[in-house]
């Protein structure tokens, strides 16, 4: 496949926060003198006690520890709210857009401080203190931001559970971190449909032997819910009469800020724990540099707060930098497929950050939905969550961005706290499908199965050789699992679990999970490559490729394909697609089986759950494992039914 390259546009090179020379200089400084580099970056925050000890970390088993800014004290909410409320009280912090386009709300930094403080006082009055866990199970409404920041203000640890999770998943997460308090809403609203959040909480609490004493309920839709006397109370009643004064709790830099369970695409979800100082420095720095954020710009991260992108960029990074952040309750295709672009025009969004899965779902509906809107406010586009296939990249660039806006393809993980490998728009020439180069303080290496470091243009397993401030500190309740999962495979290094290729220019290309690298007749191949080829066909909307046992080749290629709205599955099309991949990549990549699938199994954050596809391909239907974190478990039955016909 061709590897087109897009140089930094002239106006960006001239006017960027960080240009190519600055990138090189800062990268070298962070690598050679991390203490000096991070002492400087830490100044972006207001500290109660400024840190003097900067980096104290070791990935070695005998002396394993990760501490950043360890003698510093700060409060995250004070950094994200108060300092801006003092300086620019009327500046807009949150632009909230409801599921229904007629509903919206503007929240200034001064109002945000009042709302956060009232809820913080309410939590305190209910006995929540520093270090307690608070589970937040809310839709994308301003109260979700108030709740997270209220926890941060008093030093409670929040655990946000995505509003689409089932009672069982919610129950497991409440249990794992032992929350005594849950904040939820009567119902959520997505795409015109209600989601029974409070009923799910009730079911979760019936499910298990949980310690929950208080459930605070936001009235969102006014739908009927059952309130349990003595346990449940309405949000409005709880905050009524609470003071808007609440002194932020001084927190040590290494005190926990939140727990977030990973999406579970590779196994049982882990309670990823992030701390205060290092995380916020990382969130703020990456938000500013990667998005080239300038004061006054409108920033929209379309991710739900239920996953890490919503935490770090909708909320913490954006607000730490005093940005105006757009919060959208709904879905990209309601009331119609133009909704994203209507929101861009309505709020004159400058920076849009979304996931390839959303782009592909919009792309399949045709360009008209996009081109009928203006989008002239857009300056920069971002992508996150999975490798973006060049087809979707080009569409994002040419159709959404009218060829004007650079795309930052940001590789990172819940575990990393923020961006790790990403272009900087004023510094990095872009190659569609590549996350390009590491950010400051990120030391990526590619290693082979034995841990030998590979040099030059090569493919291998992606590890990070040293600590960075935004890194997770532990798996909640299971420090041993933290060490085992991330530091034992390649001793002394953080193992990402991702496969990756580095090209001649030192650009990184994530090829998918290491588990997803397949070996066909001795040729190692990233599944992402075959998927990109399939999606490049005009009739294909989405594809997922997994390995399957093959007598001759060792592993064969099993492809699941979802077609565009205007295409029908047929035997001819199946043959055409197989030939197409053969032509695009080569005979070695010819799919052995190609199954048309009405939909693919995805996690709540939009990631394809390949372990399920692998089991179906291997015909091990009794070993599908935990499917409770799927967005739509019914998809699995349809896939099993479709297997018959494909094989
Ligand atoms: P679990 O760890 O429970 O399986 P998860 O890994 O799906 O959950 P996340 O932390 O949200 O949860 O996902 C991180 C992964 O997403 C990365 O390891 C990588 O595989 C993929 N990813 C994220 N952004 C990109 C990107 N820009 N390009 C390629 N892959 C990406
Ligand atoms: Mg992961």
Automatic annotation (TrEMBL):
<feature type="binding site">
    <location>
        <position position="540"/>
    </location>
    <ligand>
        <name>Mg(2+)</name>
    </ligand>
</feature>
<dbReference type="Pfam" id="PF00501">
    <property type="entry name" value="AMP-binding"/>
</dbReference>
<keyword id="KW-0007">Acetylation</keyword>
<feature type="domain" description="Acetyl-coenzyme A synthetase N-terminal">
    <location>
        <begin position="23"/>
        <end position="80"/>
    </location>
</feature>
<feature type="binding site">
    <location>
        <position position="524"/>
    </location>
    <ligand>
        <name>ATP</name>
    </ligand>
</feature>
<feature type="binding site">
    <location>
        <position position="535"/>
    </location>
    <ligand>
        <name>Mg(2+)</name>
    </ligand>
</feature>
<dbReference type="InterPro" id="IPR045851">
    <property type="entry name" value="AMP-bd_C_sf"/>
</dbReference>
<feature type="binding site">
    <location>
        <position position="498"/>
    </location>
    <ligand>
        <name>ATP</name>
    </ligand>
</feature>
<feature type="binding site">
    <location>
        <position position="582"/>
    </location>
    <ligand>
        <name>CoA</name>
    </ligand>
</feature>
<keyword id="KW-0436">Ligase</keyword>
<dbReference type="InterPro" id="IPR011904">
    <property type="entry name" value="Ac_CoA_lig"/>
</dbReference>
<feature type="binding site">
    <location>
        <position position="513"/>
    </location>
    <ligand>
        <name>ATP</name>
    </ligand>
</feature>
<dbReference type="InterPro" id="IPR042099">
    <property type="entry name" value="ANL_N_sf"/>
</dbReference>
<dbReference type="InterPro" id="IPR000873">
    <property type="entry name" value="AMP-dep_synth/lig_dom"/>
</dbReference>
<feature type="binding site">
    <location>
        <position position="333"/>
    </location>
    <ligand>
        <name>CoA</name>
    </ligand>
</feature>
<dbReference type="InterPro" id="IPR020845">
    <property type="entry name" value="AMP-binding_CS"/>
</dbReference>
<comment type="function">
    <text>Catalyzes the conversion of acetate into acetyl-CoA (AcCoA), an essential intermediate at the junction of anabolic and catabolic pathways. AcsA undergoes a two-step reaction. In the first half reaction, AcsA combines acetate with ATP to form acetyl-adenylate (AcAMP) intermediate. In the second half reaction, it can then transfer the acetyl group from AcAMP to the sulfhydryl group of CoA, forming the product AcCoA.</text>
</comment>
<keyword id="KW-0479">Metal-binding</keyword>
<keyword id="KW-0460">Magnesium</keyword>
<feature type="modified residue" description="N6-acetyllysine">
    <location>
        <position position="607"/>
    </location>
</feature>
<keyword id="KW-0067">ATP-binding</keyword>
<feature type="binding site">
    <location>
        <position position="537"/>
    </location>
    <ligand>
        <name>Mg(2+)</name>
    </ligand>
</feature>
<dbReference type="InterPro" id="IPR025110">
    <property type="entry name" value="AMP-bd_C"/>
</dbReference>
<feature type="binding site">
    <location>
        <begin position="190"/>
        <end position="193"/>
    </location>
    <ligand>
        <name>CoA</name>
    </ligand>
</feature>
<feature type="domain" description="AMP-dependent synthetase/ligase">
    <location>
        <begin position="82"/>
        <end position="467"/>
    </location>
</feature>
<feature type="binding site">
    <location>
        <position position="309"/>
    </location>
    <ligand>
        <name>CoA</name>
    </ligand>
</feature>
<dbReference type="Pfam" id="PF16177">
    <property type="entry name" value="ACAS_N"/>
</dbReference>
<keyword id="KW-0547">Nucleotide-binding</keyword>
<protein>
    <recommendedName>
        <fullName>Acetyl-coenzyme A synthetase</fullName>
        <ecNumber>6.2.1.1</ecNumber>
    </recommendedName>
</protein>
<feature type="binding site">
    <location>
        <begin position="409"/>
        <end position="414"/>
    </location>
    <ligand>
        <name>ATP</name>
    </ligand>
</feature>
<dbReference type="GO" id="GO:0003987">
    <property type="term" value="F:acetate-CoA ligase activity"/>
</dbReference>
<feature type="binding site">
    <location>
        <begin position="385"/>
        <end position="387"/>
    </location>
    <ligand>
        <name>ATP</name>
    </ligand>
</feature>
<dbReference type="Pfam" id="PF13193">
    <property type="entry name" value="AMP-binding_C"/>
</dbReference>
<comment type="similarity">
    <text>Belongs to the ATP-dependent AMP-binding enzyme family.</text>
</comment>
<feature type="domain" description="AMP-binding enzyme C-terminal">
    <location>
        <begin position="529"/>
        <end position="607"/>
    </location>
</feature>
<feature type="binding site">
    <location>
        <position position="521"/>
    </location>
    <ligand>
        <name>CoA</name>
    </ligand>
</feature>
<dbReference type="InterPro" id="IPR032387">
    <property type="entry name" value="ACAS_N"/>
</dbReference>
């Amino acid at each position: 496949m061709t590897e087109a390259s897009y140089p930094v546009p002239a106006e960006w090179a001239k006017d960027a926060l960080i240009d190519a020379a600055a990138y090189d200089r800062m990268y070298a400084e962070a690598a050679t003198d991390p203490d000096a580099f991070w002492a400087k970056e830490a100044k972006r925050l207001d500290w109660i006690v400024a840190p003097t000890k900067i980096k104290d970390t070791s990935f070695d088993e005998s002396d394993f520890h990760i501490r950043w800014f360890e003698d510093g004290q700060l409060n995250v909410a004070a950094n994200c709210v108060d300092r801006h409320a003092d300086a620019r009280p009327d500046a807009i912090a949150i632009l909230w857009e409801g599921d229904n386009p007629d509903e919206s709300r503007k929240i200034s930094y001064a109002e945000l401080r009042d709302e956060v403080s009232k809820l913080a006082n309410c939590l305190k009055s209910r006995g929540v203190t520093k270090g307690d866990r608070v589970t937040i199970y809310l839709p994308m409404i301003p109260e979700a931001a108030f709740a997270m920041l209220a926890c941060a203000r008093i030093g409670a640890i929040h655990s946000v559970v995505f509003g689409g999770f089932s009672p069982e998943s919610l129950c497991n997460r409440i249990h794992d971190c032992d929350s005594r308090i849950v904040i939820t809403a009567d119902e959520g609203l997505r795409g015109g449909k209600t989601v029974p959040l409070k009923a799910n909480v009730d079911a979760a609490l019936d499910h298990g032997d949980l310690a929950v004493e208080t459930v605070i309920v936001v009235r969102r839709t006014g739908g009927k819910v059952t309130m349990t006397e003595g346990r449940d109370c309405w949000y409005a009643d709880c905050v009524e009469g609470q003071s808007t004064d609440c002194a932020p709790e001084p927190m040590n830099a290494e005190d926990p800020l939140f727990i977030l369970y990973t999406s579970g695409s590779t196994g049982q979800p882990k309670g990823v724990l992030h701390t205060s100082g290092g995380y916020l420095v990382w969130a703020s720095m990456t938000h500013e540099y990667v998005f080239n954020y300038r004061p006054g710009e409108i920033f929209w991260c379309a991710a739900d707060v239920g996953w890490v992108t919503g935490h770090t960029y909708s909320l913490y990074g954006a607000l730490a930098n005093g940005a105006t952040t757009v919060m959208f309750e709904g879905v990209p295709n309601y009331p119609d497929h133009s909704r994203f672009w209507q929101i861009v025009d309505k709020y004159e969004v400058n920076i849009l950050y979304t996931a390839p899965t959303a782009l592909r779902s919009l792309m399949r509906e045709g360009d008209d939905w996009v081109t009928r809107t203006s989008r002239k406010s857009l300056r920069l586009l971002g992508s996150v969550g999975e490798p973006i296939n060049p087809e979707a990249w080009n569409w994002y660039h040419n159709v959404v961005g009218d060829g004007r806006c650079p795309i930052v393809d940001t590789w990172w993980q819940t575990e990393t706290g923020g961006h790790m490998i990403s272009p900087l728009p004023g510094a990095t020439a872009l190659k569609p499908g590549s996350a390009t180069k590491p950010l400051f303080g990120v030391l990526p290496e590619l290693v082979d199965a034995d841990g030998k470091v590979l040099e030059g243009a090569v493919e291998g397993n992606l590890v990070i050789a040293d600590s960075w401030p935004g890194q997770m500190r532990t798996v909640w309740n299971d420090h041993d699992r933290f060490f085992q999962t991330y530091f034992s495979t390649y001793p002394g290094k953080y193992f990402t679990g991702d496969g990756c290729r580095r090209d001649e220019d030192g650009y990184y290309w994530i090829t998918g999970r290491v588990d997803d690298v397949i070996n066909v007749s001795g040729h190692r191949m990233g599944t992402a490559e075959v998927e990109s080829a399939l999606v490049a066909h005009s009739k294909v909307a989405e594809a997922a490729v997994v390995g399957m046992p093959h007598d001759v080749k060792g592993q064969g290629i099993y492809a699941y394909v979802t077609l565009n709205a205007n295409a029908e599955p047929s035997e001819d099309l199946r043959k055409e697609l197989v030939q197409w991949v053969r032509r695009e990549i080569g005979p070695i990549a010819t799919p052995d089986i190609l199954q048309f699938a009405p939909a693919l199994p995805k996690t709540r954050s939009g990631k394809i759950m390949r372990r399920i596809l692998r089991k179906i391909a291997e015909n091990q239907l009794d070993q599908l494992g935990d499917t409770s974190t799927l967005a739509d478990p019914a998809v699995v039955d349809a896939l099993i039914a479709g297997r018959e016909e494909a094989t």
